[in-house]
Amino acid sequence: MTNQSYDAEFGDFFALLKPRVMSLVVFTAAVGLLVAPVSMNPVLAFSAVLFIALGAGASGALNMWWDADIDQIMKRTQGRPIPSGRVTPSNALIMGLWLSVLAVGMLGLTSNWVAAGLLAFTIFFYAVVYSMWLKRSTPQNIVIGGAAGAFPPMVGWAAATGGVSVESVLMFSLIFMWTPPHFWSLALFMNHDYSAAGVPMMTVTHGKPYTRKQILIYTILLAPVTLALAFTSIGGPVYFAAAVILSVGFLRGAWGLFQRSEDVATSDDYRAERGVFKFSLLYLFTLFFALLIEAALRGLNLTWGAWPVWI
Ligand code: HEM
Ligand SMILES: CC(C)=CCC/C(C)=C/CC/C(C)=C/COP(=O)(O)OP(=O)(O)O
């Protein structure tokens, strides 16, 4: 077969949506929506989450379209649909654009245009600001670009309430501060990939000891933001307990990385770095799950009725 697009199967197009990474993104958006203090129709709540998921996936496809050249160089990403030749770049672009329009339009029609506007901005921020501009130009790429990954709970909250609040800004801030330790702990053991591809990640431009220090700084800054949420209308004792335990665990991990010298961390011994990366995922998932428990304890605000005017 000569035409690459003929080889593509459904699974290849699905892989363009970065489903594994986006699962946590979508979970945080769903929690943002479910913990909001307004009553929502379950069908509309479900469809809002679906459209946010579609938008997140679309931004993943746009990212893969733009990054196909570097994805081909990096071992971790070589098997993706475009570099492996199963999906053509133009098909990925078309899919990313169409799904973006669909997701934003449908979220606007079924929830509200504040949420749709925020979703559009998030897609733009990840695909254009992070992927096309910052990723290849500054080691602060993920600090600033991380804002894209922090918006989803705000989108979810806006889908339910039509607005922004202290709670949704704090959920944003939590993910914003969490992203550097999440990503740099991975970059510490994937450094060779990024330097081969010429991507100016912190580990490449400033070295690993400096990156370890930055991980520790962001983890320290993250702790008060995480704890602050406990004292808002969506927090409570379950969340507070999770926040304390997880903050202590994350700080210990980051401190451990900071103390590690390069001679200890040889190319085949990155267990501590892998450990902190995995812990970052557990951290975010558990905290948002705890928010969900708090909401369930208060009684979830799902009620039939309250359809948009045009239905
Ligand atoms: C600019 C911000 C971010 C960067 C640069 C980043 C980078 C990465 C990279 C390179 C991986 C490696 C594995 C893979 O490709 O599957 C990864 C994994 C992951 N990230 Fe992030 N990430 C960011 C933000 C986020 C956010 C906001 C979330 C969720 C809220 C998230 C959730 C995940 C998850 C769940 C995985 C594991 C995927 C798996 O199981 O393979 N990431 N991240
Ligand atoms: C609702 C909505 C639009 C959500 C988007 C959320 C978002 C921006 C998530 C970012 C997650 C992510 C995989 C970053 C990877 O960086 P990379 O692209 O540099 O990683 P790679 O090397 O694996 O391609």
Automatic annotation (TrEMBL):
Q: What else is known?
A: Carbon 2 of the heme B porphyrin ring is defined according to the Fischer nomenclature.
Q: What is its EC number?
A: 2.5.1.141
- Family according to the record: Belongs to the UbiA prenyltransferase family. Protoheme IX farnesyltransferase subfamily.
Q: Identify its membrane topology class.
A: Multi-pass membrane protein
Function field: Converts heme B (protoheme IX) to heme O by substitution of the vinyl group on carbon 2 of heme B porphyrin ring with a hydroxyethyl farnesyl side group.
Keyword Coiled coil present in the record's keywords: the answer is no
Catalysed reactions, as listed in the record: heme b + (2E,6E)-farnesyl diphosphate + H2O = Fe(II)-heme o + diphosphate
Pfam families for this protein:
UbiA (PF01040)
> Chief localization class?
membrane
Lineage at the top is: Bacteria, Pseudomonadati, Pseudomonadota, Alphaproteobacteria, Rhodobacterales
Subcellular location(s): the record lists: Cell membrane
What's this protein's name?
Answer: Protoheme IX farnesyltransferase
Source species, domain of life = Bacteria
Q: Fill in the subunit field for this protein.
A: Interacts with CtaA.
